[in-house]
Amino acid sequence: MKYSYFPGCNLKTNAKEYEHTAVEVSKILDAELVEMPVFNCCGTVHSMVSDNTMRRVAPVRILSRSEEHQKELEDTKNTVVTLCSMCSSTLKVVNEEVKEDEEMLQKINWQLERDNLKYSGHSEVKHYLEILRDEVGFEEIIKKVKKQLKGMKIASYYGCMLLHPDKAKIDDSETPTVMESLTLALGGEVVDWPYFKTCCGSYHVVDKEDIVNNQVLKITEGAKKRGANAIITACPLCAYNLDSQQVFLQKKGVIKETIPVFYFTQLMAIALGIKLKNFEDHHVDPKPLLKSLGLI
Amino acid sequence: MAKAISMREKKEELDTVTIYIMGQGYKVPSSLTIMKAMEYAGFKLKRGVGCRAGFCGACATVYRKLGDYKIYANLACQTKVEDGMYLTQLPFVPANKAEYNLDEIKPSISTMLRFYPEIARCLSCNACSRVCPQDIQVMDYVQYSLQGQIDKAAELAFDCIQCGLCAIRCPAEIPQYHVATLARRLHGRYHMIAPDTLEQRVKEIEEGKYEKGFEELMSLSEEELKKRYVARDFIDQKKA
């Protein structure tokens, strides 16, 4: 099975290892992510104004471009797959909106008409975690595991965009289990903790770092207190905030110990026996932990 | 005989079209380009005209056709007149151009955003690509810049002649063609390998290898220069 994969901007800049490991893992699981030939920005954060059609052109353009891409792929589904949870949320919400509002879809299609594009309204947007859970299945993943993640005590951090709003959630908003199930499938230990969707501070990292630092302190200390030695996430912005601000807090003397932050696909890659390229994207060095557990 | 004249008149009528330059109608021969038609109509072009060969990007023209809602744009020197064209020239486009020292910046998304933060306002409407007389996928190279894929942005924007039409159409007010220049410069400076022959030649120039030859040429009379030009010898590529 092949999926039309929409990367978005972060996967090409700050989260290259997320993309690399996801694509490699997808090949082993026969749920291959094939990148769309051309793609634009998802629009980052869907418009809350119901009649702002212009802000919805970008996500609908992606949906229509993906439909073109799906025609080229053999053995595929009418699905656009994302890795970034922000892209996932924006695309899912807009997809539902234009499915419900034919008039809006028509207006947007008039904008796409001269580029020979038209969105039918028949595609589904899926986060890769959903593909793993609903289409590959954890049983299948367990079969492919070569090296169990023995000794990894993993706190699954969902952030906001995977669970909100209702139109975009990939799991139950209050008791999500997809990343925990994945952790178990890979042979890791699940850490139960209350901060799985406490806001990371998001874009405030640009102008109000204090807000982000407070959030990151709460989240990472919370994970450590409950015995976690790693945090996994699916969002490049969450990963950046949790990772980089820990180093900042450590330098300031606020915290002594740091906890490494991984993308879930990185741990999948380790468990499925794929050699990781590098840890360039990381701020907190994850190598000491992985070495001590004999995982690299 | 009378019939022949009327045929000729009719033919002339067929071969002329009416165009409107800034609202004023003119009958011009249908075989002309917009630029030549403007001169035919009596305009003396000082700005908004350059190479007359579709390379310099100075003669951007915006027009509508009678009864057609669409707005069109093209180069005046490359487009034939059509009946009912409403034309205006766009000799210059105001667009901020960033200043930078290429040796002090890196080919990354943060560089693109530092000098042209407005690229983050792109709505993906693609109005820029549709207006481009060079058929460049302008929106896609803006998006590549936003994705930090500087190499792809530079290659996609290679044919840009900087007419500025994209910048005028953009609802996000991005000066796309300056963004493209930055991408190409970064690509050239950091990704491409400089050819040995170029480096060799630059070194020779710096060492003054050609000074003597130039001095000699500069001292020649116009007559002598012409004579030398006609008698010039091309380098035999095989021997060289």
Automatic annotation (TrEMBL), chain A:
Transmembrane segments: none
GO MF annotation, one: oxidoreductase activity
InterPro entries given in the database record: Cys_rich_dom (IPR004017), HdrB/HdrD_reductase (IPR051278)
Origin: domain of life: Archaea
Alphabetized Pfam families for the sequence: CCG
Keyword terms of this UniProt record: Oxidoreductase
Cysteine-rich domain location: 4-92, 155-243
Protein known as: CoB--CoM heterodisulfide reductase iron-sulfur subunit B family protein
Source organism per UniProt: Candidatus Heimdallarchaeum endolithica
